[in-house]
Structure formats: structure tokens, C-alpha cells
Amino acid sequence: MNHLFIRRFAILGLALAVVSCAPPAYKERGWASYVADQYSGRPTSSGETYNPYAWTAAHQSLPFGTQVKVVNNTNGRAVNVTVNDRFPSYPGRIINVSRAAAEYLQIPPYQLADVTVTAKTIPGGAQPAPGYSAPPPANYGAPPNASYGAPPPSNYGAPPPANYGAPPPALTPPPPLTPPPPLSPPPPGFGTR
User: Fold this and answer.
1) Which CATH code is given to the segment(s) 21-125?
2) I need a surface site. Which of 10, 15, 133, 175 has the fewest CB within 10 A?
3) Closest alpha carbon to 97 in 63, 128, 56
4) Smallest Cα–Cα separation from 66: which of 127, 123, 132?
């Protein structure tokens, strides 16, 4: 009976080791940035509303709903995020993470971080789409707004003012400071014990 228990335990342990050692479905190293707060409340490519404090990311090719692990290669911090958006192609940039994920990974604002992105599985067993780019926005190809092509303002092309390019006027020094009035003497008995 004891041998049967040990044998079953060994088989279960071996099965778990094989599953955990399986290569990831997707792994890539590159640069990460974070989605600017100006997009807060706007719809993402997946249709969800962007929330900077959610654990989400934008990726160029992974299907929406893919859970990925993003590791900051500089400091070793890691976070799990869900892909729910796309972003334009920039050389070497592989992912845009939400503000919450960026703060946890310690990515400074308006800067990039060297990261490794790993997905154990991809929903539906699909593979990342090679060279995928997001569909154009709904207003793509629409005529520009009314100010485009309008005549320039009336003073456009007029000569510059006569003092244009002249050095600024000399600054006059401020008046000298007057010393403060003398202090009044302390009251009688002040400072004695």
C-alpha cells in the first residue's frame, strides 16, 4: 500500500514537472512603454474602455484576452497583464502597459524599459498574427476639419515689427534694500530666572 502511494505521487509529480517545463507559446524581449493617461476612458481596439489602473496592455499581434507576464530586465520586477489593445509600430517596442503595470515595473514616465514578454498559452491555440496592425479608426479617410485649407489670417506674410531681432532693453537694477528698523528692547525681566 505504501509503495502504491509513492508510485502515484511520483507519477503526478513527473506530470506536473513536464507541464511546467513546457516552452511558452510566445516569448520576446524588447522595449516597453506605458499608455498615456490622456487615453483614459477612451475605447481600446478590443472595445473595452481604457482604465490606467487596470492590469492591461497593448500588443501588436497577440490576440485580445491573452495573459502575458512582463518582466523588467533591469530590476527583475514582473507583472501579469491582459492584452486588450493595439499600438502603432515603433522599432524595438513590443508592448505598451497600463499606468498601474508601469508603476509596478518601475518604468519612469515618458521612458522605455528593457522587458521580456512571455505568454504560457494563447487563447484558442492561435499564433500571434505576423505584421498585424490595428484597423484604421472609423474617421480614417474622412475630409479634414473646416479650418484645413481655409485662407490664412489677414496679417500672415506681413513684415515683422521694426524692433524684431533687436536685443532686449537693458534691465535697470532694483533699488537698494533698506535695512529693517531696529528691534525694540526686551521687556523688563525677560531672560532672567
Assistant:
1) 2.40.40.10
2) 175
3) 56
4) 123
End-to-end, the C-alpha distance of the chain in Å comes to 92
> At a CB cut-off of 8 Å and minimum separation 6, what does 59 contact?
66, 68, 83, 85, 86, 87, 94, 95, 96, 117
Cβ 54 vs Cβ 100: under 8 Å: yes
SS3 20: helix
Global pTM exceeds 0.70: no
Contact between 94 and 65 under an 8 Å Cβ cutoff? The reply is no
SS3 187: coil
Read out DSSP for 108-172? PTT--EEEEEEES--GGG--PPTT--PPPPTTTTPPPPTTTTPPPPTTTTPPPPTTTTPPPPPPP
One-letter amino acid for residue 12 of the chain: L
pLDDT tens for each residue of 5-24? 566 665 665 555 555 567 88
